[in-house]
């Protein structure tokens, strides 16, 4: 259930490059070649790019692909990110699902393939999927490929250098003790320390997720995604850490009613406008902010740092929390859908995603094209991380992930306990027993 991801697009030069890429996009096998010479194909495409620049990027990508494959046309339907949680399961359960839809992999993908309507891409992509490296494994279920990523993400703290300077903070915090001290310093200057979009609930989960990553060993993290039981004491300790952090009142006034990415009053908008000093979000937040304040003047003040270490935690402090964005094809889509996903994963398109300094490309061959210093830092951090834990609401099956997010959001609103969060996962994973 990952959020609005925005990929930059410079209309003139990028359009030419994307057109060239579409023209050179080879088919994914004999089936794709046959499809290319067959009758007209119309692909319905659901994605979460409801605003520019990503909305224009995907529109251009569809147009360019059609120019190179005249028999293939698209009906593009941008859908607000939070709606995918309900719209995709309903569509897969119905008789007319989209041909291509936004896919975040993990347990959500595993839940979706039980419908029998998500295409097994394994054989069709075998000749080229290797170019994406390990990142593609997040879109596999039992060794089979059911989705293709087009970018990858890491969550950390975005911060305003100017507001840190006003509060006398000379360097980003590396431990929770230092972060708590910085929160106190910002308050003395009447600066909102951290913005959060709790109205959308999912941003709350990032805090519990990261405290769990810091409290639990990597082996415990991996096992949880398999057995859906949070029996190790570290999981409850993560909730205790959240409780202690909330007690410092680190967020803006009215945070429970603040959206994450919609409008200048969102948590993303607050950071862009300098109304809060920090926000725990993914690398996608920079383009999200640009969509809200297009002049981009805030970018020179932006910095990024990893989630701090937790004293006494059993987790490796260099382990990251992240995921990525991708697409799946449904079973009625045909070979043109697979070929289009190959086009989106091509280095020409991936280079544009990276070179505009907006997203971390799924294709590692394009990582060298990153120009934004913050994204370079995030990419370097991700490359050195011994393990990247997929967001738990995505790593777990859909119903379990939703139960976790709801329990954490309720906890942020003053309901429940650290044990309640743990129990919500266990109950959902066992079918409520």
Automatic annotation (TrEMBL):
Q: Which UniProt keywords apply?
A: Signal
- Kindly indicate where the leader peptide sits in this chain: 1-22
InterPro entries xrefs: Bact_solute-bd_prot1, SBP
Q: Which domain of life is it from?
A: Bacteria
- In Pfam terms, one family for this protein is SBP_bac_1
Q: Quote the PANTHER family the UniProt record gives.
A: ARABINOSE-BINDING PROTEIN-RELATED (PTHR43649), BLR3389 PROTEIN (PTHR43649:SF14)
The name on file for this protein is Extracellular solute-binding protein
Whose protein is this, by species?
A: Actinocrinis puniceicyclus
């Amino acid at each position: 259930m990952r959020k609005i991801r925005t990929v930059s697009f410079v209309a003139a030069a990028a359009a030419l490059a994307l057109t060239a890429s579409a023209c050179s996009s080879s088919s994914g096998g004999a089936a794709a070649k046959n499809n290319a010479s067959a009758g007209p194909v119309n692909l319905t495409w659901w994605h979460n790019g409801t605003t520019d620049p990503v909305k224009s990027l995907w529109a251009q990508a569809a147009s360019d692909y059609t120019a190179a494959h005249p028999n293939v046309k698209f009906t593009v339907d941008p859908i607000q990110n939070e709606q995918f949680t309900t719209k995709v399961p309903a569509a897969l359960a119905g008789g007319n699902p989209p041909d291509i839809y936004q896919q975040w992999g993990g347990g959500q993908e595993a839940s979706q393939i039980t419908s029998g309507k998500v295409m097994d891409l394994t054989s069709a992509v075998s000749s080229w999927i290797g170019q994406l490296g390990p990142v593609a494994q997040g879109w596999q279920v039992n060794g089979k490929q059911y989705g293709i990523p087009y970018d990858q993400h890491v969550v950390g703290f975005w911060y305003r250098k100017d507001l840190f300077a006003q509060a006398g903070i000379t360097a980003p915090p590396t431990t929770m003790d230092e972060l708590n001290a910085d929160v106190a310093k910002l308050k003395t200057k009447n600066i909102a320390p951290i913005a959060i979009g709790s109205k959308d609930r999912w941003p709350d989960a990032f805090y519990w997720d990261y405290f769990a990553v810091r409290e639990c060993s990597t082996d415990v993290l991996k096992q949880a995604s398999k057995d859906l039981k949070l029996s190790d004491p570290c999981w409850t300790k993560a909730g205790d850490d959240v409780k202690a952090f909330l007690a410092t009142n680190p967020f803006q006034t009215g945070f429970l009613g603040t959206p994450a990415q919609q409008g200048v009053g969102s948590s993303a908008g607050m950071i862009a406008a300098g109304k809060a000093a920090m926000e725990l979000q993914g690398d996608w937040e920079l383009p999200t902010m640009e969509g809200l304040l297009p002049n981009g003047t805030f970018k020179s003040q932006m910095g990024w740092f990893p989630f701090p270490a937790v004293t006494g935690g059993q987790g490796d402090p260099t382990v990251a929390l992240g995921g990525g964005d991708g697409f799946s094809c449904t079973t009625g889509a045909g070979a043109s859908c697979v070929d289009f996903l190959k086009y989106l994963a091509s280095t020409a398109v991936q280079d544009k995603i990276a070179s505009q300094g907006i997203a971390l490309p799924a294709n590692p061959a394009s990582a060298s094209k990153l120009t934004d210093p913050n994204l370079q830092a995030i990419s370097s951090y991700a490359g050195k991380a011994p393990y990247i834990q997929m967001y738990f609401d995505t790593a777990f099956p859909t119903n379990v992930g939703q139960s976790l997010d709801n329990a954490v959001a309720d906890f942020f609103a003053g309901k429940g306990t650290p044990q309640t969060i743990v129990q919500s996962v266990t109950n959902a994973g066992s079918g409520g027993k």
